Amino acid sequence: MASLPAREFLTALAGNDVSRAVLPVESNGTATCDVRHWVRNQLRVWDLREPGTFIDRVVLTVSELFTNAVLHARTRPLDESELVDVALLKSPIALGLRVSDNCCRMPPLTAVRPPAYAAHGRGLVLVDAEADAWTAVPRKDGGEDEAHGKDVWAFWLLGAAVLPQAV
Questions:
Q1: Among 78, 75, 95, 73, which residue's Cα sits nearest to residue 151?
Q2: Where are the beta strands (DSSP E) in 7-132?
Q3: 19 vs 54: CA distance, rounded Å
Q4: What is the CA radius of gyration of the chain?
Q5: Tens digit of each residue's pLDDT (9 = 90 or more) over 21-31
Q6: Where are the beta strands (DSSP E) in 6-132?
Q7: What 3-state class would DSSP assign to 94?
Q8: Nearest-angstrom CA–CA distance, 45 and 77
Q9: pLDDT-wise least confident of 58-62, 101-105, 124-128
């Protein structure tokens, strides 16, 4: 469903008129339900009343991205604590969902449909179908040159808004 390049969404979500909410979450599968509830509640707090199943699309997307972070991006042993940050950013024209993990390995930026018999591998296909755009970018902490994980983003255009062209 990609309609606009992700960089245009990132530009729209970088302004001063952006609302932000961040939830640091322990990297384990039992937290997925809490993450879904937090996202649904935050969208209600922001009074997002997009038509149809908009909130369900965002909740499905966060469920997939958070689960991917837990299953594929954990960098510490299971008996050690590791956080994944889930963030929502809302401008007047766009909504962004960011899942930040500590693994530098990037997901494939084109969703590949797995064989019908595969037990896994449909998460990014769902993200691609539910979001208007998505991307992954290396995360650099403290202005360092070396990446310290990644941010996986999903974006939605709000209402009949048109994004400004990124420079």
A1: 73
A2: 19-26, 83-90, 94-101
A3: 18
A4: 16
A5: 999 999 988 99
A6: 19-26, 83-90, 94-101
A7: strand
A8: 36
A9: 124-128
Architecture of domain 6-157: 2-Layer Sandwich (3.30)
Report the C-alpha gap between 2 and 12 in whole angstroms. Answer: 16
State the Cα–Cα distance between residues 105 and 87, nearest whole angstrom. 20
Q: Are 98 and 29 in contact (CB under 8 A)?
A: no
Per-residue pLDDT band for 4 (boundaries 50, 70, 90) equals: low
Instruction: Give, in order, the Cα–Cα distances in Å from 87 to each of 19, 58, 74, 164.
Output: 10, 12, 18, 23
- Answer for the pair 84, 25: CB distance below 8 angstroms, yes or no: yes
Q: Which amino acid is at 31?
A: A
In this predicted model, what pLDDT tens digit does every residue of 87-118 receive, in sequence order? 999 999 999 999 999 998 888 766 666 666 65
**Percent above pLDDT 90 for the chain:** 49
